[in-house]
Amino acid sequence: MKKTRSKVMSTVAGAAILGMTIAIPNYGAVGNVAKAEEPVQQELTDEEKGQALEQHVEAQAQPPNVNIDIDPVAIFDSISETIKTADNRGGFVKAARETVSFHTDYSLNVMVLNLSNDYDESSYSGVHYFDTFTYDGAIYGVWAFEEGTFVNNGDGGYDNWAFYGWFDRDGGTVEFRLP
User: What are phi and psi of 120, to 5 degrees?
Assistant: First the structure.
């Protein structure tokens, strides 16, 4: 609901900035009315345009608000079960990525990384979840976070890492951002 509301406000604000007239159809029917009403044309005053522009600018200036409810015990239990059932390391790494993505409603960036690789994860923020898991002697870090950069200087491939989210990748460097 919030996403729809913000898209409507952005559309109204954008139209107001451009001095456009907005047609807002009224499809609400009363009783057994069979015909929808015609769209109502509404011209915004200069004051309303200014208010819409002000709201649009304020909305753009606000930092993103990421409020995700995570059950770390459920994530841990799910990944631990994956360790027992995965037939290979690559399968475990992909399953761990999908497990964390699912438990965060696919709204956070996720990294699963073999910690024996030479890596740098020093520039990330907004961590909502972190834990380590051992699969067949290899220790993996599992993160769910908002943004940051991970650099894998070691071997790539699903045996060593997998990630999900909104990112730009250049070889072993992955720069994550908020959606």
Answer: -135, 120
> Which pLDDT belongs to residue 48?
65
Domain boundaries, the chain: 2-61, 72-177
**Separation CA 136–CA 92 (nearest Å):** 10
Cα–Cα dist 89/5, whole Å: 43
How far apart (Å, rounded) are the C-alpha atoms in residues 174 and 176?
6
Find the length of the chain: 179
Residues 91, 55: contact at Cβ < 8 Å? no
Alpha-carbon distances, residue 135 vs 11, 54, 78, 82, 131 (angstroms): 49, 53, 14, 10, 13
pLDDT averaged over 10-residue windows placed end to end, the chain, 179 residues: 37 41 40 46 62 56 56 72 72 92 94 92 87 90 94 90 96 92
Cα 105 to the center of its chain, rounded Å: 8
Determine the Cα–Cα distance for residues 118 and 15; give it in Å rounded to an integer: 51
